[in-house]
């Protein structure tokens, strides 16, 4: 007796199992057994006899290739036909690997369901013929026996028939239970799918909808089933332009279609899969809508962050080169001024050069602030205290026509930040608010303790949950449209008239907040003003009061200084500066030359003055190498910029001087380091 044919389908995604079973149910007189991983599949193979297995390739723990090889290694099922189905592995390599693993066919998603059905029918017919052949073989063997054996065989057949009858009755009862169980499992899977999933007829009428569809639409089942999909979701009497169902139906042949659709205030990827009967007629459409709103928003944030990061690297590199040139220009100009008498006509020209150099240095500092490569000296700050002390300055900046309100949070947490950077933030946002308000208006500054959880942070790029202090600036100005909001943090972007701003204010704001491990949110609309929300991580440390000495110390010295600088003009300038203060100077234009001098110089070397950014070896690496040769040597680093890690570490140790610098600031910093008492390790 030929048993009902069984098909094993294996996939770790419930929605894929659901779709595949719905396609295969178009075939009559088959039983479908599902497995969600390789282990479940192996258990099913031990308990059932299958005509065919359809396997997904990419699965956790055991992929389709491994499962196929295990099936082939089992004598009982070594000849079981296997069809691979994959949406990811579609190259020739993976197809050939599938055949090597024992597959008889390999299909790539999206596929035409009718093609799959036709292939399945072929293997079912082969299995049916094999069963008939087996049955015929048994009958032929029986006929070749003796009459007595035939009688005994018939008697046994009768007994077996009676027994089979009881077994058949029991099987039928079990089958009915299995059908009910399978129906329940199918319904559970359908309801559990986390995307809006519906079954439509070929006229786009919804015949079934899962729980997610009801939750996302806010409609009860009776308000959805029986209506056209375009009526439920778009309120239209016909499919809208770009309808994925219509696109699918217009195809020749009709096949799986995906399209991005904006509906219910969100973005969805809508997948439409046609289901055909045995005659090739379309009977149903499986309609699955996946919410990609969060993915698109995060992608937008990531793209913006990557763009600003790239611009920041460019700005930092430009600022580094400019600072090197400005060191030479302002350094030699200042030295020339010292040697010129007051009445010399060239003096005025050189003074203009120095003024221009200072303005250019300020511009490069702004670029470094945006690129997060400026040297910072972070301290423990309470924003309430800083803003209270700065209110008079802010009121002068904003003018008399604008009312400034400060709403401080009681018991505000502390933050770790460079106080000069906080001053930059307040000044830039105050000036922005002033320029955005025409006539009389209001600006509100507010501080708030806030704890951000994972649900909030999942909508933001590079933001971790935790405790933050939020500083908000809200103005009643003209506001900004979305196009302006997309560009406000880019350097040199401005909506002001020519000559009324460099376009660096908000880019500096972005850079200093990111350098303090914070982030910014902006809310704005035309005619409704703008709110900047700055989130800075909380620190549990308390502020330390710093007492600065105002004692004027001598700048000259007689110690020996080794200068390592790859820019020859800067090397010559710094040498000239230090010799003017009485120092003994050794120079090296490469790190290797500096190491050689440290090894061969017979007298003590008291200080290494090194550039941070040099070819073959950076300044920090050179410092460590020379420390091995001369453990007692002290070090001062100089650079047009330094990477965050190096700059922060050096600034904390007070061993860094940014370019460009004057000979006085250089001499003062050298004296400070040489006079410092070494700390015990």
Please provide a written account of the structure.
The protein folds into 5 domains: 5-144, 3-Layer(aba) Sandwich (Rossmann fold), CATH 3.40.50; 196-291, 2-Layer Sandwich (Beta-Lactamase); 301-371, Signal transduction histidine kinase, dimerisation/phosphotransfer (DHp) domain (Helix Hairpins); 379-539, Heat Shock Protein 90; 560-675, 3-Layer(aba) Sandwich (Rossmann fold), CATH 3.40.50.2300. It is 47% helix and 20% strand. The protein contains 21 helices and 22 strands. Helix 19 links the parallel strand 20 and strand 21 (634-639). The chain is elongated and about 135 Å long.
- Write out the CATH superfamily name of the largest domain: Histidine kinase-like ATPase, C-terminal domain
How far is the first residue's CA from the last residue's CA? 90 Å
Specify Rg, calculated over alpha carbons. 39 Å
Helical content stands at 40-55%
Q: Which structural category fits the helices and strands? A: alpha/beta
Strand content: 15-25%
Stated plainly, the CATH topology of the largest domain is called: Heat Shock Protein 90
**Helical segment count:** 21
Q: From the 3D coordinates, which CATH architecture of the largest domain would you assign?
A: 2-Layer Sandwich
CATH top level of the largest domain is Alpha Beta
Per the principal axes of the C-alpha atoms, what is the gross shape?
elongated
Query: Would you identify the regions where 5 or more consecutive residues have pLDDT less than 50?
Result: 369-373, 498-502, 546-550
Largest sheet: 7 strands, mixed
Mean pLDDT: 81
Overall number of strands: 22
Number of domains: 5
